[in-house]
Amino acid sequence: MGTKVAFKWSRNITPSQVMHLIKKERNIDKALAIFDSATAEYANGFRHDQNTFGVMISRLVSANKFGPAEDLLDRMRVEKCDIKEDVFLSICRGYGRIHRPLDAIRVFDKMKEFQSEPSQKSYITVFDILVEENQLKVALRFYRHMRDVGVPTSVASLNILIKALCKNSGTMNSALHIFREMPNRGFTPDSYTYGTLINGFCRFGKITEAKELFEEMKARDCSPSVVTYSSLIHGLCQSKNVDEAMGLLEEMKSNSIEPNVFTYSSLMDGLCKDERSSEAMELLETMISKRCKPNTITYSTIINGLCKEGKLHEAVEILDRMKLQGLQPDAGLYGKIISGFCDIDKFREAANFLDEMVLGRTLPNRLTWSIHVRIHNMVVRGLCTKSDLSQAFQLYLSMRTRGISVEVETFHTLMKSFCKKGDLQKAARIVDEMVADGCIPEEGSWTILLGAFWDQRMVQEALEVFQAELMSEFTEADVEMHGKAL
User: Fold this and answer.
1) Number of domains in the chain
2) Which of 162, 267, 301, 459 keeps 20 to 30 A from 112, CA to CA?
3) Last residue of one domain, picked from the residues 83, 98, 113
4) For residue 367, what are the contacts with CB-CB under 8 A and spacing of at least 6?
5) Integer Cα distance of 338 and 350 in angstroms
């Protein structure tokens, strides 16, 4: 790392002093330098212990510096420092957080090399990471391995197994079977077990089954959590039972369970799809008054609903609120507002939002490319129909500069508009660039362009004949006047 630490250690360094300094230092490289400089004080009798190593490894994992963290693990073994499983598990969880589950297994396997036998807690942690990361085949193999090595079955391990089986509609029945068998094996399902199954049924549109489990859960004095309520509310909204979902929101409040951003966003989505965007707006105000911060999904849901109902003024207001909160609208969101203005023939407003999107550096990526192409072409063609050719041409040039594909229909519209205006130079340029892009103009386009050039040529010739006649008349009159004078 090469970071120097400019302070003097006291004669008697203690592990707690080192830990305090490492925790306090925000810069990870400086924290590691503190750790190393303490090691340099071996002459004073200080050696790192499992606590100082543990804190430093935890800091490195939080900063996604997994190489240095694993190096410290090896150093603990060299220095014959006692290693507890929590140190390994902090690294495993870190790998799970950054979606590298196979590295989590690798570190778990390292435990035996370090003469640290994994406990039930370690097995359950790794099993959960594999399921969370959808490594279901590996997870089920790992579960069988747990059984083979004699790890006792528990409610926690069965909950994770049920969660794995709830990931696919084809294995939902197996999940339900294990759940029904739990009491016979001496295990009592908890709120997490019920919540997992309810979430699974809702995900696959089996709302009746989800509702039955929800009622059973309450009958057994198993309190639903905010996650379980939110799963059911989301499922009800997806199946167009919005009023029933709103009833659950009231039930949550009466049970003193605070809805979260997912609860509110799900309800707003249901209301907007039911063309009840004004109720969704009221819910947004309630949410904010409860100090629950809307996120990008919340705002997107309402803006989509408002645009669908043609309430563009309100949609723009919500977009502004979103930006004031420091959230950047994406291309899809701008696309909805721009399309909304295009639908009511307000192409200048649409062009202004297109400019705002570009200035806000909402750049095309693999997922949003088609949205950028569609809205840019739509606005250029719209501006042409409104005879705002100057702005249409500027936007066309901007598209070419930024590599956004120009559609054949847009080329034709621009070319026809310039021909109609009599700006044949620009019309010819459009055709040139169209051909350069590999688009072959249709026969009608050539006819219009050639016709315009021909008309201009005929006008030019007529002007020349008229000018010639005029000049000859002046000349004749001049000769006649001179003759009289003589």
Assistant:
1) 2
2) 162
3) 83
4) none
5) 5
Is there a contact between 143 and 161 (Cβ–Cβ < 8 Å)? Answer: yes
Rounded distance, CA 115 to CA 83, Å? 9
Higher pLDDT, 115 or 467: 115
Burial class (CB in 10 A: 0-12, 13-18, 19+), 45: exposed
CA angle 261, 262, 266 (to 5 degrees): 120
CA–CA dist 192, 159 (Å, integer): 7
Asked, for residue 168, whether it belongs to a domain, the answer is no
Structure token pair of residue 460 = 């030019």
Inter-residue contact 218 to 225 (CB < 8 Å)? no
Q: CA-CA distance, 427 to 436, in Å (whole number)?
A: 14
Answer with the one of 58, 83, 108 that is the final residue of a domain.
Answer: 83
Q: What are phi and psi of 414, to 5 degrees?
A: -60, -45
pLDDT tens per residue, range 49-98: 888 888 899 999 999 999 999 999 988 888 888 888 899 999 999 999 99
Q: Residue 301 corresponds to which tokens in the numbers above? A: 């849901």
Phi, psi values for residue 259, rounded to 5°: -65, 150
Query: How much is the pTM?
Result: 0.75
Closest CA to 34 of 71, 10, 63, 6: 6
Residue 411 inside a domain? The answer is yes
Displacement of CA 58 from its chain's centroid (Å) = 28
Q: How many residues are listed for the chain in this entry?
A: 486
Query: What token pair was written down for 293?
Result: 């911060």
**Residue 286 to residue 10: CA distance in whole angstroms:** 56
What is the amino acid identity at position 453? F
Q: How many CB atoms within 10 Å of residue 400?
A: 13
Spatial distance between the Cα atoms of 275 and 261, rounded to a whole number of angstroms:
21
